[in-house]
Amino acid sequence: MDRPAVANFITFRAKWVIWLCALTSLSAPASRVIPAERFSKVQWALELAAHWQWAYSIVGILCLVLLMTKRTWWPLFPSILLGSSFLVQSDTLDRGVEPDNADSVLVVGTANLNFATTDFSTLVGWLSSADAPDVVFLQEFTDQAQRALSAPEILRRYPHRVEAPQPDPFGLAVLSRHPLTGVQALAEPDRRATLQLRATLTMAGGKTVHLSALHPMPPLNAGYAQIRDQALVREARHLEGLGGLALMGGDFNTTPWARGLFAIDSQLRRASGIAGTWPNALGWASVLPLDHVLASRGWQRLDSSRGPNLGSDHRPVIVRLLAQ
Length: 324
Known about the structure:
CATH superfamily of the largest domain: Endonuclease/exonuclease/phosphatase
Strand order of the largest sheet: 3-4-2-1-12-11
CATH class of the largest domain: Alpha Beta
Number of strands: 12
Largest sheet: 6 strands, mixed
Order of helices and strands: HHHHHEHEHHEEEEEHEHEEEE
Helix content: 25-40%
Radius of gyration: 21 Å
Number of domains: 2
Strand content: 15-25%
CATH topology of the largest domain: Deoxyribonuclease I, Chain A
Number of helices: 10
């Protein structure tokens, strides 16, 4: 096949691919308006498609660049659909400016450790470093992880902690440099629900922060997806009822384009960004932002980033927050 024939072959398929990406990306806005209670399976299917907005955008941009070399402008139309769908996201915190008083700043991290992990040396190194968060939510927390994080340097760094290790992917822990009180571990009666942790943190300046740690089941079917979203809504309402500053963190098994985070915008907003955290391919390539830190009113975001590669299938998330 000669070069012109190869170019035409590729261009023809790029036309189909860019439209396919654009139409599939519309699953994000569509999932917001389909009643989940009446059309649970449709909503579930739309949500599974909505998660992959990064992939649609990257592939769509590559097709757009290729097609624009043909001096044609029609690919701009599917590109507008792609961009519009990508921007249909749950709300984020407002940006803040660096304060004079460091006591009002809290650095928060969340990390899914992968319950199959046996080497925690990188995790120990991160949490004992100067870049470690003030408080960190840990998911897939096992007995082996608990033993690794009982090292003297970690105990000195995080003297306050809530730990609930489990031999499955749903153990949780919260490690904190600041005092924790009001600790609760909630086990739901529904076997499809997962453990939750609650605690109250007291910052250096005396402000109290209500914490909730979650790791709901992945959306293996429509029922699991509904239980996950119900857990997020229930916990967001609980934190709102307590009043004051609140944070909720963990691997929520959902993305900013799905219905679950939209449903709690009025109580909590995303402090973390939209960089992918799963799967942690090659230590840097991730597509789905499944790991989140959500914050109540009274917080402003100073910075957010992904943490180091811990050898898990997830990348950690780190946010710096300013308490008002």
